[in-house]
Amino acid sequence: MSSLTKDLMFLIMQFCDEENLKKTARMLEQESGHFFNLKYFEELVLDGNWDESEKYLSSFTAVEDNKYSTKIYFEIRKQKYLEALDKHEFSTAVDILKKDLKVFAQSNEELYKEMARLLALDDLRENDSLALYGDALTARKSLLGDLRAVIEANPLLQGKTRFPQIKKSRLRRLINQSLNWQHVLCTRPHPQPHIDTLFTDHKCPGSDIMQAQLSSLPSSPIAVSEWPLSRDSSSTDSHVTIRNHEILSGRGALAEDGRLYIDGKSTEHIKEEEDSQTDISTRCQASRNELPVEFPSTVERVLDIGSSMTSMDFHPVQEALLLVGKLSGDVEIWDVAAYKKRFSRAFVVKSLTEKVGKNHGISVNRVLWSPDGSLFGVAYSKSELHLYDKNRSSFEKQLEIDAHIGSVNDLAFSKANKILVVVSCGDDKLIKAWDAATGAKLYTFEGHEDPVFSLCPGLKIDIHFIFSISISGDIKVWLFDNIGSRVAYCAPGSCRTRMAYGNKRLFSCGTEENGESYLIEWNEVEGSIVRNYQLLSKHSSTVVQFDTCLDRFLAAGDEHVIKIWDMDNDELLAVINADGGLQARPHICFSKKGNLLAVSALDNRIKILANDSGRRFLQEDAFDFGDSAKCLTEYLSNLSVDTPLPFPCQGVAGGNGTMGSEILDATLNTKLKGREETTNNMEATNVSKIVEVSRCEYVLLTSEVKNNLIRRLLYTHAGNGIIALAEDGTHLLWRWAKRSEATMECAPQLWQLRSGLLMTNDLPDKSGDVATPCLSLSKNDSYLISSSGRMISLYNLLALKKMRDVMAPPPSATCLMFYPPDNNIIAIGMDDSTILIYNIRADERISKLEGHSKRISGLAFSTKLNVLVSCGVDTQIVLWDSITWEKKKSTVLQISVGWMASDLSETNVELDKDQQHFLAVHETQLAIYETATLRRVKQWTIANFCTRISHATYSCDSRLVYAAMRDGILLILAAADLAPRLEIDSSAYLPSRLSGYVNPIVVAAHPHKPEQFAVGLSNGGVVIVEPEESQGQWTIKNHLES
Question: Is 23 in contact with 30 (CB distance < 8 Å)?
């Protein structure tokens, strides 16, 4: 289907919706397959219309198409089954189990059996994992969040869930333009033509001559790209263009009854609207890319707050808490990270019972946190000012102040003689300052001749003051005394205006009664205008809301978008539509750090936009479950709504699932102590062997994600997470809670999208192909590059999603490393022995390094020496200049006599903390080299051991070397002489059921805790090891003590 035909389909869908032909629109969506109407699908799920939802879904994907489709069908049928059980419709449940769920039994028979056992229960909540199952509607709402994420990730549905942004009645406008064009070609056009049909071309009486000329034109339609753009390409074209302009400027529109005729006023209005939008886009297009990444521009959360909001404010410390005031008079606190409402209070005032009866018509005008976030104020539309104080984990009303006669229009917090005060203004033309602790009135400021509309606190050289603005635009400045206003000047347009500080500069935004708005910067000393920011609306019905961000940007909600200016430039910098659906004049509010932006949207929603830091914060805060995290049994947790069965992505998920959505405890085995110590003599005299669990502590991290042995393992640079890459290309990410250290008492939790989707690399097509998994983490812990024998994938660790693939094999990547000075540049070791220096953002190769004879197995950058160290399976070590990318020198790792390196044996390199030396790891030996000279200074071989080295790494302080041996033993060596000091038997760091059967594969050291390291295991698990708590560190004796 051609692109234009597809566009036509969308126009017809829009037309059907506008004409209320809903069934026809849905049928067209299904038959064309161009648009998956997510809103309609969600309505079907919420209504429990399971058959219709599956029928609609089946038009786009089948249950066996991919794991995402399987997940969607499974979750729908599972919820259908649970609802039948909850209604005690057991015959229906049996029918669903046999017909609908049977298809999933083959991939997870145990789960199917467990679901069948639910039939024997009188109440499905008797099952531990379903104890929190509520009503059907609550369960469906929770299910929607999971389904939405899986649908967005499904390759078969990507790009189909969003309807193109098309202006209203677009198809009608195109037909109308066509009729206008036909009317232009009439030789004697009537001033008010009437169109009775679209089946034939329009022709005014007496236009036969022109029609004869038209009949001589080619019969094939003229493509848009072929239409002559020059007005003087021919006399005919020029004449037609002028006539077209004349008629469009006088006539052309749509009739109310749906028929089309020429009416100029409507066409002209539409054209003006288009020109306005085009002007905004054109003027900011050139600078749109200048908006830096630190500006919050990506929609990360959408909150459904239930009713219209009037004011909002982010907590100054707890960035995830958003205070919201509503038109209904309610005040709420939302946790934007967890999508949850944490606090809600309706308007109830004892002192106003007689005044306002049932509080009809009382709304919130302003909500505001105090500077330290310990309390917040609420200004109401009828005389009241309320203060709420923090009480343990919630807030309680501290003060009710009858502040003004009429509406309390605004409030602000400030300091008066070192006392925290709350300042209010109202319709009674007064400004009042109240003691925030006692509610006592401290000051009353008089001087405005009209109701006071807004307040803005200021501070200069430890002197606190208040700006006040009346509805007529009069601006006054007050010190905390009773002398009166110090400064008075007027806002442009003499209109309702709000003020704000940013980067110690004063800004205001106001809207006249005629709708024209102003956003200006003030010289507050002289009361003059420094700068007037352009392209604000000229037809606003309400005051445009604005805010400052990062002490650099101004943002205003206007014309259904967010307009952004640099404070130093009056030209519009950029426009953000936040994925559409914003109010005409949306409220906006930045968090204090500038990482989050809240903006009001249609249908009583608030959208939360974030930058990378904000996205990371939301992810971490969302997974910081605290006391709410409960442990479920390993088996029954498979029934959780959050469990991504039946395809192999069974992981731990958080959220509010209805079937035991709490976090699955990662089978933690912590602090196993108390066995008697035994000894085991070794030939090496300088090795103290730990064979007793009491000499070390461990935490075993496992997950329900089906994967095989761990091939690569690393800590995040911040030390708050562990990333593992399994043989099957699956990535696992465990993180400690946001405010917790990487300790054994607080074990990390597996991070996973609530949908259960995993970050997974593509594997080689042929099962016999040997793949070398590799990965590297960016310096800011935000991005991961990884490969498992095919494409190199770039992942966003904040969103846990794949961003793009590059470098299709052959050759395939065998080693990856981010270039520390620039996260856009990576070094790629290839299986054809070359090294590519690659700009992944620009998708271009910078340089190709050749010097090895076999595949590359290790890379390390030294930013202090500006060199790259590489090694390969050929045991050759090469030093490269990281500026010119020229080869400087090379050496060969000497294999001990009697030992032969296999073709698959790898050599890895790792720099010490000073980057002056590096550790070379081979299956037969460990060696330390000088980075600049490649001179070997220390070496340890496995001569006294019967097994080879699996992997080894430096501790973060480079004092120790942790090595994993293939027989399950962990060695701790002193880096000073590279001699083994301690040996940890597998029985000391693994439970008895695994000891002797599971081997260590790879080791990673914590980046900030020298005594902690993690080991990737052959069964797909990860274990974290530390010395026992009583010692606090590994006891390493020197040579003389040994």
Answer: no
Helices and strands (DSSP H and E) totals, the chain:
15, 59
Nearest to 736 by CA among 891, 892, 582, 623: 623
H/E stretch holding 115:
helix 109-117
Q: Using an 8 Å Cβ cutoff, are 634 and 667 in contact?
A: yes
Q: How far apart are CA 885 and CA 198, in angstroms?
A: 69
Cβ-contact 649, 618 below 8 angstroms? no
pTM (two decimals): 0.43
Q: Which two tokens stand for residue 484?
A: 């009166």
Query: What is the 3-class SS of 862-907, one letter each residue?
Result: ECCCCEEEEEECCCEEEEEECCCCCEEEEEECCCCCCCCCCCCCCC
Positions of E strands within 657-741:
688-690, 696-701, 710-715, 721-726, 731-735
Distance, in Å, from the CA atom of 810 to the CA atom of 805, rounded to the nearest integer, reads 14
Structural Rg of the chain based on CA atoms: 35
Query: What CA–CA distance (Å, rounded) separates 636 from 115?
Result: 9
DSSP state of 206: T
Amino acid letter, residue 406: G
Amino acid at 569: N
| Per-residue pLDDT tens over the stretch 871-905 | 999 889 999 999 999 999 999 987 765 555 555 57
Q: What is the DSSP letter of 963?
A: E
Pairing mode of beta strands 452-460, 834-839? unpaired
Structure confidence by residue, pLDDT tens digits, 748-795: 888 877 677 889 998 887 665 678 899 999 988 889 999 998 899 999
List, in order, residues 6 or more apart from 223 with CB less than 8 Å away.
none
- DSSP letters of 357-406? TTTTT--EEEEEE-TTSSEEEEEESSSEEEEEEEETTEEEEEEEEE--SS
* Closest C-alpha to 578, from 299, 836, 332: 299
Strands 431-435 and 419-426 come out as antiparallel
